[in-house]
Amino acid sequence: MELLIVSLASLFAGFVDAIVGGGGLILVPALFAAFPTAHPATLFGTNKGASLWGTAFATWQYSRRVQIRWVALWPAAVAGLVASFAGAWLVTVVSPDFLRKVLPLVLLAVLLYTLAKKELGRTHVPRFAGGQEQLAAAAIGLVIGFYDGFFGPGTGSFLVFLFVRVLGYDFLSASAAAKLVNCATNVAALVLFISKGHIWWHFVLVMALANVLGSLLGTRLALKHGTGFVRGVFLVVVSALILKTSYDAFLR
Predict the structure, then answer these.
(1) What b/e string do you get for 32-46 counting C-beta neighbours within 10 Å, with b at 16 or more?
(2) If we measure between CA atoms, which residue out of 212, 83, 199 comes closest to residue 151?
(3) How far apart are the first and last CA of the chain?
(4) Which distant-in-sequence residues (6+ apart) come within 8 Å of 127 by Cβ?
(5) In this predicted model, what pLDDT tens digit does every residue of 155-198 receive, in sequence order?
(6) Within 10 Å of residue 215's Cβ, how many Cβ atoms?
(7) CA 64, 56, 128, 122 torsion-angle sign
(8) Measured between alpha carbons, how far is 144 from 63 in angstroms, rounded to an integer?
(9) C-alpha–C-alpha distance, residues 132 and 139, integer Å
C-alpha cells in the first residue's frame, strides 16, 4: 500500500515538476506520511532518486521542441552541481530551520511581482549574450543550487522565475532551462545521500518509472499550450508553496 501511494504521488509530482517545478511539494509530504518513522535524510534521498529521472526526461523532451541556450546554461548546470553538493554537505552540520520562516515571505514576493508584471515572461527576449549570459546564468545556478542542496522547497520555481526576470526568457524557455540546472543540482544532492546510505533503492526504481511517466505527460501539455499555460501553472504552484511553507513555519 505504501509503495502504491508514493508511486502515485511520484507520478503527479513528475507531471507538475515537468511544467514548472514544485514536484517536491507533492512527493516529499507523501513520503513523510507513508513512512513517518523513517529517517528524514533517507526520504529526501529517495525523493531525489526518483525525481531526477523525471527531470532528466523532461529536459530531453523540451530540448526537442524548445531552443535551449546550451552554451549559456552549461556553466549554470556546473555551478548548480557544485553549489548543491556544498549545500547538502552544510545541512549535515548546520540546521536550515532559520529559512523556514523566511521562505514563505520570499515566495509571496515572487507571486506578487509576477501578478503585478502581467507581461513578465510572455515573450522570449534574452537580455544578455555570450559571456555575460553565461555569467548571469552561472550566478543563478550557484545561488539556487546551494539553496537546493541546503533546503530545497521551490527550487524549480525559483529557477524559472530568475530565468524569466534576470535573463529575459519566456516561461516555456525558462522552464526548459530550469530542468537542465535542476538535473545537475539533483545529481549532486543524490550523490551525497547515496554516500551516506540514505536511499531506498527498492522504492526508487518503481517511483522513478512513475515520475518519468508523469514528466512526459506534463512536458507534452506545456509544449502544447505554451508559455501562457506555464505561467498560469507557475502562479498556482507558487501559491501552493506559500501555503505549505507557511504552515510548516508557523503552524506545525
Answers:
(1) eebbeeeeebbbbbb
(2) 83
(3) 26
(4) 166, 167, 168
(5) 899 999 999 999 999 999 999 999 999 999 989 888 888 888 88
(6) 31
(7) positive
(8) 22
(9) 11
